Amino acid sequence: MLGCYDALQKKYLRMVVLAVYTHPDDPQTITECYHFKFKYTPNGPVLNFSSKNKQGDSPISCADTKKASILLIRKIYVLMQNLGPLPNNVCLTMKLFYYDEVTPPDYQPPGFKEGECEGMIFEGEPMYLNMGEVPTPFHMLKVKVTTDKQRVENCDESILKQREPSLPLPVLTVDGDEVEESQNIKEDPVLDNKVGDGDHADALEAQGRTCVLF
To answer: Mean of the per-residue pLDDT values for the chain?
Structure first.
């Protein structure tokens, strides 16, 4: 995690991807993943969890933030009561994406090595869970979770959002929120067929250099 902070302090970090996988020899086939996106403003970094909607410029009070935080925590608690356990012996991988225009070509944060900018495929049928958002005067935090449909039992429909099975799995991108706003198919940009094996080698073209935890 110290490597993440180093890249964040230097304003290089664009997105962190945490993915859970079950086969040690195949970290690209995942069962659950989380996206943390960053933007930089004069007031400091802005953290965004798989955001697709923009927040207006209206002032946010401490009371608003407190109320939204309580509601989000309650919603997460409800989800945890209904979400089945992960398989035994799961593994965790982390990928960092950078802003190429400001990141030195040879930069590698502590604890990370250069990645191959590979996509990921989902093991099983993915389910997209909209958890909620917390606005503050400095940033907007939104939480979404992608997990296996079989792990979801009786969650409230307001936090479930299942993609139609006929639609192709979207590309793992690090595009700006304005792209996600205009293309709903990429509102949860977490999945793709494997790349780097020849068939999809350009799937993440121009999306930024990556590194992986070792």
So the answer is: 67
Q: Where are the alpha helices (DSSP H) in 50-168?
A: 62-82
- CATH number for the domain that contains residue 9: 3.30.900
Torsion sign (Cα): 17, 19, 23, 28: negative
What is the Cα 147 distance to its own chain's centre? 12
The predicted-structure confidence for 104-117, as pLDDT tens digits, reads as follows 989 989 888 887 75
The Cα 151–Cα 173 span in angstroms is 25
Look at residue 8 and give its three-state secondary structure.
Answer: helix
Answer positive or negative: Cα dihedral of 211, 184, 166, 152: positive
Answer for the pair 177, 52: CB distance below 8 angstroms, yes or no.
yes
Q: How much is the pTM?
A: 0.58
Strands 29-41 and 121-122: parallel
Identity of residue 175: D
- Domain carrying residue 71: 2-213
Helix (H) or strand (E) holding 178, with range, is helix 177-182
Tokens (6 digits) for 2: 């110290």
Question: Could you tell me which residues come within 8 angstroms of residue 74 by beta carbon, excluding any fewer than 6 positions away?
Answer: none
Residue 102 contacts residue 11 (beta carbons within 8 Å): yes
Size of the chain in residues? 214
Which structure tokens are listed for 64? 């608003």
Count how many domains the chain has. Answer: 1
Question: Tokens in use for 115?
Answer: 């990645």
Which residues are 16's β-sheet partners?
36, 96
Phi/psi for 159 (5° steps) reads -110, 5
